[in-house]
Amino acid sequence: MAGANAKEVFNRYRGNPIITAADMPYPASSVFNPGAVEIDGETLLLMRVEGRSGMSHLTVARSADGFTDWRIDKAPTLPADPIGHPEELWGIEDARITYLEDVGRWFITYTAYSSAGPCVALASTGDFRSFERFGPVMPPEDKDAALFPVKFGGRYAMIHRPVTSHPAPKANIWLSFSPDLKHWGDHQLLLPAREGGWWDANKVGMSPPPLLCDEGWLLMYHGVRTTISGGIYRLGLALLDRDDPTKVLRRSDEWLFTPTATYEREGEVDEVVFPCGWLLKGDEVRLYYGAADTCVAAATASLRELLDWLATPAARP
Fold first, then answer.
1. Is the pTM of this model over 0.90?
2. Is 15 part of any domain?
3. Under 8 Å CB-to-CB from 293, ≥6 apart: which residues?
């Protein structure tokens, strides 16, 4: 099996968790699931913050070294706007960030929680201080969306996770294309959740945005194993063709990263590691993730080791 008997590929930052609700400059219940970018020589996290109302919004944290001395905005950076955008009635969650060179702006895919269920929404920014909302681009129930940073055949591409109920409830990863970031079509199944006792059976979803490397597009996705005591959120890898993202070159049979630390196993939702952002610095991949839906943590890995792990014989399309 892929990665069997191997050492841990990801190393947790020794100072984890790096941000908790106690670090917030305003009252918050929890902080987790951050998108991540590097801007102006600093690491910027766009974190999901759950207020004491139970609703979520997005707030920026900045750090010179990406691990310590976080400067957190004094108020919500991107609050929900249920008046102007009724799809955000019950909050906004889980930002993934992609820079589109042809537009010259950062684009944020996030979950807008409407009264009819969660849907994929889109916003853009040039400085993470002011934002332009584009509203929902996928109807409920859909979430875990991320854009590719380049076009394919003149079209933008987005990975997302709709939920179906026939013949039984299931959440698969899909791929869609758009000429203008507004009208989406050519929808196709990309990574189906497996059946039976697999770690990623019945429910999978995209984690950080696709990461371009020499071999293709590296994907990290989460799978949910349902047990008698609840779900376990774990992470696996897949690789897409560099020029045609509809082609899955490899997919790991085994999970790569699982909750083991106390801050990952105990919290608002136990047994969860959930990344929405990662950064590539040379060969080092920095992963930023929510732990137990309660706090923000970080881990690092070698990109070469990740690709070698995925290249083992059991990793298959």
1. yes
2. no
3. 30, 32, 33, 267, 268, 269, 272, 274
